[in-house]
Known about the structure:
The protein is mainly β and about 350 residues long. Helices cover about 5% and strands about 55% of the residues. The longest helix has 24 residues, at about 1-25.
Amino acid sequence: MQIKKNLHIIIIVSVAFLLLYIFFAARSLSNELQLTPQWTISIFQVSQEKPDTSQIQLPFRMGQNMGYFTADGTIPLMESFPFQAAISPTYRAAYAPDSTRIPVYQLNSERVDSPDFYIEGAGFPYICDDRIYLLTPGGYGISQYSREGRLWQFEHSAPITTISSTPSGTAVGYADGMVFIFSTSGELLQTFDPGGSTYPIILGTALSPSASQLACVSGINQQRFVLTQQRNGVNKVVFHTYLEGNLREPVLVQFSQDERKVFYSSATGIGIVDCTTFANITIPLKGKILSIQECTDNKLIAVLTKDGNRYNIYLLETEGIFIGSFGFQADAAFITIEDGNLFVGRDSSISKINLDIK
Length: 358
């Protein structure tokens, strides 16, 4: 009898609970991501025809080979190098450990012809898009070059550990825990010391495309991630967090193209920080993070890691939702994303995979 008396109350409470659950727990399900293989080519299948200059040529470097490929599956250029090489969508350069005059070739220039210009100096070139840098043999100095010659140079008392180059400036991290930010003309704009660790060292640095934000992973023993944003012309710390574990090698830090997110490597996986709300999440991944590629059309990122001789590719939403992964055995690998397509390099082959959300 008591149950019958209270039945209407139970029903009302149950319905109210159900409505509240639906209201607070409702969440639109993510659309399904479909990976559709398009083609696989060998990097040794070099086209004998002159490259179509209207097509985007994407750079690759695997093992002792580098070159360019197109979205339709042609290899306009491939060449081997004996020691080391640097390549970007604009320039390429192969060099030896004792090089004092490094030849630089522009996109579509042929190896048999004379170089487009030389880097006049000893060291190790770093090329990012159309920007060329040279690190001195001891690792303490850096210079930026153009076709006309050296633009600027800088020397410090500690060796360089990281470089981040954008069209708006350059950030250089050092083993003594200092970060130096330079303008496009080489003017030293700011020095930054993240601190907070027993052993200060900059392990990873990223300057945002507009140079208004700087992020870095620094220190050993209380390793931490630090994000700064420009306030009245000076970068101020707006967020930091201590990280689990202590990586002891260079790590990847990278801003999204719209500068709303920043991604960083840690001992436990990939971290994603919202640059507005400063929400921070970590997604566990296996292996060392080698590359983070962004697909702006689908709001996805592809992350390449290496775990022993196995490479893994993880697909994530930029909001931090794990979608899926696949892996393979290889001696060398790379990934890049262009126009909604994922390109995967594996030893001597390149595959095109369409990323389509239904």
